[in-house]
Design a protein that fits this description.
elongated, mainly alpha, 91 residues, 4 helices
Length: 91
């Protein structure tokens, strides 16, 4: 149950939801191939810088997704409240 998972700290949608589309899998295969090529072509220090850059990009993207999730969740709650007022008002 979601409420129990929230209470106990076991609710991690960002870690459990992974796209299943073939396009997502293909993009990740291409990324892996390109990273392997870069690792073979670049000196170790330069490749380490590329990895650090990608880690920072991933962190930034994760922060953006968190903000978008929070906004979407709050918008969903507000929508439910508005619908409830519309259908269940005592006018």
């Amino acid at each position: 149950m979601i409420l129990e998972d929230l209470w106990s700290g076991r609710f991690y949608p960002a870690e459990t939801v992974v796209p299943t589309s073939p396009e997502y899998r293909e993009v990740n295969r291409e990324i892996s191939k390109k990273m392997e090529r870069l690792q073979a072509q670049l000196p170790r220090e330069q490749f380490a810088q590329v990895e650090q850059l990608l880690e920072q990009l991933a962190l930034s993207h994760s922060m953006e997704l968190e903000s978008q999730f929070c906004f979407g969740f709050a918008a969903g709650i507000r929508l439910q409240q508005e619908v409830s007022k519309f259908f269940f008002s005592s006018d």
